[in-house]
Design a protein that fits this description.
- The chain is built from 2 helices and 8 strands.
- By secondary structure, the protein is of the alpha/beta class.
- A hairpin with a 5-residue loop joins strand 7 and strand 8.
- Helix content is about 15%, strand content about 40%.
Length: about 130
């Protein structure tokens, strides 16, 4: 049986992206592979083994595009409103907290935020499917 171990995104400024993911998801560097033309930095939290791989192509100057296929990374928190307030206090610009309902039944409470390279992160409140 296979096991998902990481997802990779390309970044323009490695330090800025590492700071963002440390602030947002409490991810820190687990290991790094540095080559003359590119660097791979793997970030992980203490909560799980899954890693986010940041790839820096050292000679690239133009920003990356995300095309029409990229969706988002998702993380779960205990309180979406409190997390949004914390990020606002740090100078980030998270979107508004929204609720997804079926009739009166709350299915999810969440907001989106973009990282320095424009990748979307969905921050979901721990509830229902995400417990």
């Amino acid at each position: 049986m296979s096991k998902i171990i990481h997802t990779m995104i390309r970044v323009a400024d490695l330090d800025r992206s590492m700071r963002f993911y440390a602030d947002l998801l409490d991810l820190s560097e687990s290991h790094r592979l540095d080559f003359p033309d590119f660097a791979l930095v793997y970030l992980r939290s203490g909560e799980c083994e899954f890693e986010l791989e940041l790839t820096l192509n050292k000679s690239r100057e133009e920003p990356y595009t995300h095309g029409s296929g990229y969706g988002h990374i998702a993380a779960v928190v205990d309180d979406a409103n409190a997390e949004r307030a914390r990020l606002l206090g740090m100078g980030y610009q998270p979107g508004d907290v929204k609720e997804f309902k079926r009739g009166e039944e709350l299915l999810a409470r969440f907001f989106f935020i973009q990282d320095p390279d424009g990748y979307k992160i969905e921050v979901l409140e721990r509830h229902g499917h995400y417990h």
